[in-house]
Amino acid sequence: MATALEIFQKLPKTNCGDCGFPTCLAFAMQLANKKISLDKCPHVSEEAKEFLEASAAPPIRLVKIGSGDHVVEVGDETELFRHEKKFFHPTAFVLLIDDTASPEGRKQKVAHLKNLTFDRVGQIMGMDMVGVKATSNDPATFASVVQEVASQTDLPLLLVSENPDVMAEGVKAVADRKPLLHAATPENYERMAAVAKENGCSLVVRETTSLDGLADLVEKVKAAGMEDLLLDFGPANMGNMLRNLTIIRRLAVKKKFRPFGYPTFVLAEGATEDAGIITALGTMKYASVIAFDEAEVPMMYPLLTLRQNIFTDPQKPIQVKPGIYEIGSPTPESPVLITTNFSLTYFTVSGDIETSKVPSYLLVADSEGLSVMTAFAADKFNAEIAADLVKETGIEEKVSQKELIIPGQVSRMSGKLQEKSGWDIIVGPRDSSGLPKFLKERSS
């Protein structure tokens, strides 16, 4: 976004007040802080509108792949480092299917793709897209396999071929799904851009000789009428990949270099181990879409966990809903424990309770997503909050005893909590890993 002074230079400078502010400079300051919109000024020129619309555009274009309820969004990033603000759109993972693979092999791969989901700290993780590679280079074969794969999954699609005739036939089968097309090259960009534009699809621009060549090709594809683009600088060793991804992101975000203001695409080729390393590096350093041939659990779980960690807002911890959670099938005689609503804390504690095989009630306090000790230090988890939670949840109606087990780290609040709640307070282990032994001994 332009600064207030840059905006002011484009305004009429009449200080007419029709915008609701006494001066044009005051209006410009509000506009720069995104508190109002430009249409509040009835006298602004078309030149100013064009300037401000261009300056307000994100440094990396938002590109949507897919249609309806099944859309993957990439791009629209504004930062180099996540601690500066956050990263908005997680790297999309694509499982590739070869059109020369056997029908049974293709079917098994799609079935595996559907089952490749994991629940981690309350979030469901999984693959984002499925792709079809036109290794056959035959339009009829490619179109048939694309249609077959599309009928077996609702995930957004990636179609891979540098032959415009093959691509055109493949797109016909799934045009309404708005697939991502890979790729426009210096040799085919005019025809490939025409195919993408005709079908309303986003397009990968691939240039492998140099980043300068990639920038030039982007301009040519844009001139051909395409705007929803992704950038692919081709195969490279991991050092060059890291270098190119960093240069593209830096030029887009810091220098507003428009030819690089698009999401990036990486094809993680090679053996599964190599593809995993490439995918991990691309996830950490700015790749928007990464496609690979295999997606086994030992490879995918750490990659999905890595992606989840990177694209979590560092200023907004993942939280679970406060309240009562039943672990196992608790009875009126079951123990009652309490913790905070930081997701990692909740799932660690609940997992350790499950390990104990002792059915229990777990009270979860609203600590604004902070862990137990952090919340206690910040006064977000104290005796008053815990006592109020006991009353608000109605846990007293579910149990025949009034004993509340608190984390050992906050033993200092036990006396005050007992006074406030009227419950007997039991100090539990300092670390939840001690809960299985602790609960078993108390229940024996």
Spans with pLDDT under 50 lasting ≥5 residues? none
CATH topology of the largest domain: TIM Barrel
Characterize the overall form.
flat
Rg over C-alpha atoms, rounded to the nearest angstrom: 28 Å
Q: At the first level of CATH, what is the class of the largest domain?
A: Alpha Beta
Strand order of the largest sheet: 10-9-8-7-6-3-12-11
Largest sheet: 8 strands, parallel
Tell me the CATH architecture of the largest domain. Alpha-Beta Barrel
Structural class: alpha/beta
Task: Specify the number of helices.
Answer: 16
Q: Count the beta strands.
A: 17
Mean pLDDT: 92
* End-to-end Cα distance: 65 Å
Name the CATH homologous superfamily of the largest domain: Dihydropteroate synthase-like
Fraction of residues in β-strands: 15-25%
Number of separate domains: 3
Q: Give the proportion of residues in helices.
A: 40-55%
Would you kindly provide a written description of the structure presented here, covering whatever features stand out?
By secondary structure, the chain is α/β, with parallel strands linked by helices. It has 16 helices and 17 strands. The chain folds into three domains: 4-56, Electron transport complex subunit B, putative Fe-S cluster (3-methyladenine DNA Glycosylase II, Chain A, domain 3, Orthogonal Bundle), CATH 1.10.15.40; 63-310, Dihydropteroate synthase-like (TIM Barrel), CATH 3.20.20.20; 323-443, Rossmann fold. 41% of the residues lie in helices and 18% in strands. The protein has an eight-stranded parallel β-sheet with strand order 10-9-8-7-6-3-12-11, covered by helices on one side. The chain has a five-stranded mixed β-sheet with strand order 13-15-14-16-17, with helices on both faces. The chain has a two-stranded antiparallel ribbon with strand order 1-2. Helix 5 (139-152) links the parallel strand 6 (129-133) and strand 7 (157-160). The longest helix is centred in the middle third of the chain and has 16 residues, at 238-253. The chain starts with a helix and ends with a helix.
